[in-house]
Amino acid sequence: MLKRSTALEYKLHRSVLSKADFVAYIQYEINVLELIKKRRARIGYQFKREDIEFPIISRVTSVFRRATTKWQEDVQLWLSHVAFSKKWGTKAQLSKVFSSMLAIHPDKPSLWIMAAKCEMEDLDSSESARHLFLRALRFHPENKKVYQEYFRMELMHAEKLRKQQHELELAKIDLFSPEILSGKLAEVVYRDAKQKIKGAEFMLSLLNIAAIFDFTKELQDTILQDLQKEHTDDSVTWDFMARRELEAAGAPELRSAQGRASDTNRREERCCAVYEEGLRSLNTEPMWTCYLTFCLDRFKRKTNFAELKQKVNDLVFVLLQKALSSPVPAISAALKETYLEWAYKTSGYKKARKIFKSLHEHRPFTKAFFTKMIQIEKEQEKPNMSNLRDYYERALREFGSSDDGDALHVSLYHEWILKQALPQVSKLS
Fold first, then answer.
1. Does residue 261 surpass a pLDDT of 60?
2. Cis previous bond, 329, omega within 30
3. CATH number of 106-231
4. Pfam families, alphabetically (predicted)?
5. 44 sits in which H/E element
């Protein structure tokens, strides 16, 4: 063992240094530490750690420091040093490693988040975590992930203080202010984030984080009010508000299956009412897609009540008919593929082909509309080659001369040639 260790250490003093030699030495010493740990557990000997493990840990730390100084750009090397320090090093050592790494790689938000999480969760230092997040925001003032994790950290901090406060109340000691305990620091983070980063999706991500904690009702209401006030022009807002109706708790007295089904039906109707309101104020393809996706999700769910399923099925049909007659080209074009797929899944091949025939002259189209029909035809036990030829030719006529039509033309034509050629090859063989 000593001979092997000496040989590996010797390579670290060559005039031309190799990263692989450093990694090999570190891995060898870590393996030794693991063996010592197993042997201690086996024989129950827990003494003289300062004479056995500590010198090895010190050597590995020193080698890591040399390696990260030599190859500063290697993030994985830094992360290996972090992992080693977490398992074998001291708390002070871990903070130093993160500090050195961030001085070299301040442009990587994920490293700032990792360092702050370590301070919060491993080192139990909310103050250090907050300091790191604030520094991270100076480098990345509009990074969504940094704000999300900073927001989460402040809520975790408030939750920890609430637990401590509960214990102190038993001793009749009042240490923390009600504002801190209710998550006001997280609200400050939210308001700052809202100014820097626009969009309903980001606000909803913060709302979902807040919903994890049971003391944030006031904060959730604030975010929800801002969402409804500032982002009614975003389909994400309407989608969230509609689905929220579905998640509303049912009446507790509804114990029968029929009663629960009626309650589900009422909640679905409230969802649809919100979607309809959204369509009246936001007649866009994403809004239609949100509504239809909701209906299709409800149609796929398992239920013992056929009337509920049929009602949703009828609603999907009505919605698709409305969407296809929309004066907004993007809406009618985007939802043709959805209509085709829905018809195939609910009524089979013949219905899908009938829908295709009824739509294939109603422009505008998307390439996905034709490729979906081609896919459906191929899934049949005996695909109709005449139909396939018709689908390919229609797609090529429609998109063969567009800007990106050349690539589509080559792709479809190549596939079609193979379809035509393979049966002939089979006959010859």
1. yes
2. no
3. 1.25.40
4. U3_assoc_6 (PF08640), UTP6_C (PF24892)
5. none
